[in-house]
Specification:
The complex is a heterodimer of chains A (642) and B (211). With 642 residues, chain A is an alpha+beta fold. Chain A contains 22 helices and 21 strands. In chain A, the strands form six sheets. Chain A has a four-stranded antiparallel sheet with strand order 1-8-3-6. The longest helix of chain A is centred in the middle third of the chain and has 26 residues. The chains are: A alpha+beta (642), B alpha/beta (211). Chains A and B meet through helix 1, helix 2, strand 1 and strand 8 of A and strand 3 and helix 9 of B. Strand 1 of chain A pairs antiparallel with strand 3 of chain B.
């Protein structure tokens, strides 16, 4: 009633105006803001907002008391570096990053004292960002700080790409919660098990006299190696441990430990300092926030005996990706981890099919399964068709032996292609799949195919062939793929005519920015008013990176890795490479968020966004990303005299 | 009909505390005797889903034919002229009743506000709200340790560090009381008092604590 003259609003406005950025807000915007607020109370030690609260649905402004943001869910001070904490006093807001990114926070906010917080619903926050240039500037400044922080990520702990706390780039040592318990190889297993039980620890590291880890023994091993075989309690642990455990130096980023765990299906990893034991990190430490077990998914994949079981495991993998994304983990790491898990899935599928087709019994046959396109570049999103091929050799084989081998492999490939489809990777519409005789080729035939593209290809042919240049071995005899890669690079290097043809294709697509720096959305088609992030956003960058990699004989297949390698080879100024990598990941992140977090997407809309529906910050960053893509295109054209 | 029944038979006993809608009320009067003294101002603050809704509050002065005693004016600061310039009681109270709707009424020393409003609203031909929650009783019942030494609204505001910028202004007091309600609801939730009904039973127990 009588809102305009509501004295409660007046006093709220006055109270807010004592703090930045509200002191600088337009009076009308501030009044409207106050009218949308609710006031909540949080008793000391009560959690206000946490990663498991889901996508941020409101802005919190501390009115009274104090709120502390911790990078983990653990109670404050439980072995976490206090540097990662954020202390929020009256007038301070959280969590802008999560709201702007429309994701969950990566930080647990807890009332340190009895506290009151004003709460602004997300819709009103976004409306305020739209309405108030000053509030927008404040949020942008906040984001700029976050982006700047993320650039320093390798030096500064506790920084995420867009998040405020947990970083997958932080060094391992920041996640090592407790000193490792270790023993010598001659310790009797009975003693080891007792120590593990009493100390309630999951793993014992076995070290030599110089404190160099030589093995690991975990609670899971007790059952399989001690209890069931009824091992004598005085057996030296050295004979029961897993020798040569996976070790990482403590300065390694967390993401690498996560990747190694995903690849190896392991739960504990030994952390070393200059080769000596420094600690143990468990999957639980790494993904304390996550509750979703990477190793469990990997184990399910490995243990699968049928396509149906693999398809179930594939569901786990998608869930994990969604989870990581919702937690604000950087798009690059999400895709890398998803790719690692998907590789494992394909490998298991290939293993099962290879056994059924008795490929190992053909002594003279060497084969290698190749991933092409985005899978080859380790850049799969959810809506990715399968693109794959087979490469094989038959030692001393005549045409007849080759034909027989090809027939066997085609039957094998047909099964694998169907299996992948069952696991959620749709069949390729263009039949670029290993089951197609055109793409199940011997090493010599692949040489000829690449020669044709490189030496006599026309622009149209190269357009279709581009994804072949991104091939990456998945399973089988990886070394023949290595040979092929070397030979291809030797031919593409320093062949400007080929490079120019590739660039002409690449330049066919231009980032959709108009003269006045507005977006140029599609007018017609099934989704008018939208942009296709894949074809006009990511593709120019992918294409340019490929041209650079092939022209300078750079082995990586991933776009970011190619751009970084180009910078190292002196083919691209380092700052331009870094900016292009940022732009690429930003666009990939938008695509991933759309595919993973939005339900009920219309088929064909997986990569489409409506720029008008983006918030201001995303719109600006997307424009900057497109500009960066255009810049890279231009540079590559100039480099090759176009 | 359901509303009418609810008003008579104790509203929403089974409502979860988090889901309940409250209206925190404060009255300024010409004195401390609810049977004789007049209603000068009434204010209410809405609490929904455990949060104070800042955009929706009610506050009105009730027009007086003759101003209240000067010593009383010193308490609430509603001067003679302001008292005469308020809105007619029937009008102000009709809007007040509309603001309340079926929210559960809450006040500190609720029996006083309840009695004052009952008299004034009946005189205006309106149905007074029922089923009041009294924070003066609830607070010591929830926090027996702290309640020992605390009696007044100011005591309890001090306990929770709640600042009242406009004490003895009806809306200022209602707002401060609403903040006290939030703190008590958080405490009740901590003690697993899940519904309005259990909260009321606690409040009744608090009657024996406040003497």
């Amino acid at each position: 009633m009588a809102n305009a003259a509501n004295p409660l609003l007046r006093s709220t406005v006055d109270e807010l105006a004592e703090h930045t950025p509200f002191d600088a807000l337009e009076p009308a915007a501030l009044r409207r803001l106050a009218g949308r607020l609710r006031l909540g109370y949080y008793a000391a030690s009560q959690v206000v907002l946490a990663p498991d609260s889901g996508v941020a649905d409101r802005l919190y402004i501390v009115k009274q008391g104090r709120v502390r943001g911790c990078a983990s869910d653990a109670a404050p001070g439980a072995g976490r570096p206090p540097a990662a904490d954020v202390v929020l006093d009256p007038g301070e807001c959280f969590s802008i990053g999560a709201l702007v990114g429309r994701r969950a926070t990566s930080v647990t906010y807890r009332a340190e004292r009895d506290s009151f917080c004003w709460e602004l619903p997300a819709a009103d926050f976004h409306a305020l960002v739209e309405e108030s240039a000053r509030f927008r500037a404040f949020c942008m400044g906040h984001m700029a700080d976050l982006v700047a922080q993320s650039r320093r990520a390798r030096r500064v702990e506790a920084v995420a790409a867009l998040g405020e706390g947990v970083s997958m780039l932080a060094p391992l040592r920041s996640a090592v919660a407790r000193p490792a318990v270790s023993c010598a190889p001659d310790t009797p297993v009975g003693e080891v098990v007792r120590a593990m039980h009493e100390g309630r620890i999951g793993s014992m590291v076995v070290v030599d006299a110089a404190q160099v880890p030589v093995g690991i023994f975990t609670t899971i091993d007790v059952l399989g190696r001690v209890t069931l075989p009824q091992a004598a309690m005085d057996t030296p642990i050295g004979r029961l441990m897993t020798p040569d455990p996976v070790r990482l130096e403590e300065e390694t980023p967390l993401v690498e430990a996560a990747l190694a765990m995903a690849r190896g299906g392991i739960r504990h990893m030994v952390v070393t300092r200059d080769g000596r034991l420094a600690g143990v990190i468990s999957e639980r430490d790494l993904f304390a926030l996550q509750r979703m077990s990477l190793a469990r998914a990997t184990e399910r994949v490995r243990a699968a005996r049928s396509v149906a079981q693999l398809a179930e495991a594939a569901g786990d993998v998608r869930l994990i990706s969604r989870h990581l994304l919702a937690q604000g983990v950087h798009a690059e790491h999400v895709t890398q981890m998803t790719s690692a898990l998907n590789d494992g899935l394909s490998q298991r599928l290939l293993e099962l099919a290879a056994a059924r087709h008795a490929l190992a019994e053909q002594a003279r046959l060497r084969w290698c399964w190749l991933a092409l396109g985005s899978e080859g570049r380790l850049e799969q999103t959810l809506a990715t068709d399968q693109d794959n091929a087979l490469l094989f050799t038959v030692e001393g084989g005549d045409a007849e032996a080759v034909a027989a081998a090809r027939a066997t492999l085609l039957a094998f490939a047909a099964e694998v292609n169907e299996g992948l489809a069952a696991c959620g990777f749709p069949l390729c519409v263009g039949e670029i799949m290993a089951r197609n005789p055109r793409w199940c080729l011997t090493l010599d035939e692949w040489r000829a195919a690449f020669d044709g593209w490189i030496c006599n290809g026309n622009s149209q042919e190269l357009l279709h062939a581009a994804i072949f240049f991104d091939f990456r071995p998945i399973a089988g005899d990886v070394s023949i793929a290595g040979t092929l890669r070397e030979e291809v690079l030797a031919k593409t290097r320093g062949r400007p005519a080929f490079s120019r043809l590739m660039i002409e294709n690449a330049s066919g697509v231009r980032p959709p920015l108009g003269l006045l720096d507005g977006f140029v959305a599609d007018r017609a088609g099934r989704f008018p008013g939208t942009l296709d992030l894949k074809s006009v956003g990511a593709r120019p960058l992918v294409d340019a990176a490929r041209v650079l990699a092939l022209a300078h004989a750079l082995p990586p297949t991933g776009t970011a890795a190619r751009l970084r390698a180009a910078a190292e080879a002196g083919a691209l100024p380092p700052d331009e490479a870094a900016a292009a990598v940022d732009a690429f990941h930003y666009i990939q992140g938008l695509r991933l968020r759309r595919q993973h977090l939005e339900r009920d997407l219309a088929p064909g809309a997986e990569n489409r966004i409506d720029p008008d529906r983006l918030n201001e910050v995303d719109r600006r960053v997307l424009k900057a990303a497109f500009r960066q893509a255009a810049l890279l295109q231009q540079r590559v054209r100039m480099d090759f005299g176009l | 009909m359901r509303n009418v029944l609810a008003r008579f038979f104790g509203a929403g006993e089974a409502i979860a505390l988090r889901a309940a809608r409250w209206a925190v009320v404060d009255c300024e009067t010409s004195g401390l005797d609810p049977a004789r003294d007049r209603l000068l101002a009434v204010a209410a603050v809405r609490v929904e889903g455990g949060k104070i809704v800042l955009g929706e509050s009610f506050s009105d002065l009730v027009r007086q034919e003759s101003p209240s005693d000067p010593s009383n004016i010193l308490v609430h600061g509603i001067g003679g002229e302001a008292q005469r310039s308020g809105r007619p009681a029937a009008e102000a109270l009709r809007d007040f009743a509309a603001f309340l709707g079926d929210a559960l009424p809450v006040a500190f020393h609720a029996p006083f506000d309840e009695a004052i409003l009952r008299r004034a609203m009946r005189a205006a031909g309106l149905r007074p709200p029922r089923g009041w929650l009294d924070l003066a009783r609830l607070a010591p019942a929830l926090l027996p340790g702290a309640g020992h030494a605390r009696r007044t609204l100011d005591d309890w505001l001090g306990h929770f560090g709640i600042v009242n910028l406009a004490r003895h202004d009806a809306l200022g007091d209602a707002y401060a009381t609403a903040q006290l309600l939030l703190a008590l609801l958080a405490e009740a939730e901590r003690q697993n008092t899940g519904t309005v009904g259990t909260l009321r039973r606690l409040e009744r127990a608090g009657r024996w604590l406040v003497r």
